[in-house]
Write the structure tokens for this entry.
Amino acid sequence: MLIPVILSGGSGTRLWPLSRELYPKQLLPLVGKGTMLQETLARVAGVDDVGAPIVVCNESHRFLVAEQLRAIGAQPQAIILEPIGRNTAPAVAVAAMAAVTGGEAGAAKASNDHVLLVLPADHVIRDIAAFQAAVALGLKAAQQGQLVTFGVVPDKPETGYGYIRRAAGTGPSYPIAQFVEKPDLPTATKYVESKEYFWNSGMFMFKASIVLDELRALSDDIYQACAQAYTSAKRDLDFTRLSVKEFTACPSDSFDYAVMEKTKHGVVVPLDAGWSDVGSWSALHEAVPSDTDGNVCVGDVLTADSHGCYLQSTSRLVATVGLEDHVVVETKDAVLVAPKNRVQDVKLLVAQLKKQGRYETSLHREVFRPWGSYDSIDSGDRFQVKRLTVKPGAELSLQLHHHRAEHWIVVAGTARITRGDEVFLLEENQSTYIPLGVRHRIENPGKIPLHIIEVQSGTYLGEDDIVRFEDRYGRQGQTG
């Protein structure tokens, strides 16, 4: 059986302001109706004998990942939570351990030896049939004990990717002669002309037992730390929560460095399927069909005499006149304007925002929670106004605040309110008041989303002024 392993741990800040640390690009619908995570799973669905996926993600993304899997009917055998990012080698290691134990955290006995198809969750592949054909070719090599990587056939010199040089062979899989770091433009041009080099895609395929044996032999420090983190892992709702102490102690290294550059069993399968890692706004512009003026327009966008631009609006009209080869991205709380040839420098803006301690690096104005979301629509001295959306059947934690009181007005749906010892229903256009220091909870007992306007007032309105007493999502005892 083929087990997809989806690596969804990145923060994707190169696509700021749309992608942020707590809502990264793999969880956004950048190139289709589905998010990049959902599209990654969809393209594997047509491969023969595919089992339930294993997803490795950042702990802070867990509810978004679970909800997106649920929305497409995907039932993973494990969602493994990384308490801290440690690059791809540890992520592959714990995924392989989950595969051989059937997703049972802490299981001592390995009983399964499936082939794993390791895929980053944030790639674009336009030719699904070609991708699936390459997977079928790679599967044969993996079943024979080879460690397969997929090399993208380059269509131009590219200085933003690492390269893989193949050795002589008859195909369809070739021995790996060399991994090469990102080259300068003249060197990249020579690589493309030689026909011996591929872009390094970061996608892999191998038997679970083989990759664990190679990790133990070639990077034993990573293997041992991951083994301890996985055997000490705890089941938490739908998640496998790795041991914080053991996983934090694990060395941070990519799978290429830790295994593929050292193994004697590596092969590369050529992939010509319209691949992109969407690593910048200019790359996204190339990955999405443009109009007759070369513009990609997403959302409410109006242009006049503008060419070669990527223009995106999420909450209001964006209009351009006479703009050439620029990126303009508008969100509810930020606007980015940059020439396409400078989009790699978005990281400089993100660094400035972090230095200033601003929330825009990590959160959007609309923040998603396991029960729904809230949007901070207005604020001022000693007050804040939010729009809460609570999913059908969901509930907020039983909580209190030390520094603020709250007024709630139901604008759509029905709310079940807990306020101190009282429990009562609020219908549309009805309201209630929650005094400072009183335990309270909102539940949605209905079948449609519940929308509430919340007005907060007090001396301190930060999200860390929350004390949770009961929470179905395992956050009780936490603040914030």
